[in-house]
Specification:
The protein contains one helix and no strands. By secondary structure, it is mostly helical. It starts with a helix and ends with a helix.
Length: about 80
């Protein structure tokens, strides 16, 4: 009887530790998923900001190009009007 009680106790303890280890792994897994989500959000934010800056640079370049083109056209008009 004492032997049976010891065996049952060992079985219950092993089940308990097994369950607690599974809970820990589930918690660790959910923490990793949360960290991955945060990392993905940060990466998306960085990519969005990078695209916004690139678009801003392209817009400034276009403005400068148009301004130069208009200045060149007006200079040509003035030169042709003088002759």
């Amino acid at each position: 009887m004492k032997n049976l009680f010891s065996i049952v106790t060992i079985i219950f303890l092993s089940i308990f530790f097994s369950c607690s280890n599974n809970e820990k792994s589930v918690i660790e897994s959910s923490n990793l998923n949360a960290l991955d989500s945060i990392k993905a959000i940060k990466e998306d934010s960085i990519l969005f900001e990078k695209r916004r800056i690139e678009d801003s640079i392209k817009l400034e370049f276009r403005k400068a190009f148009l301004k130069d083109s208009l200045e060149n056209d007006s200079i040509k008009k003035v030169e042709t009007a003088q002759y």
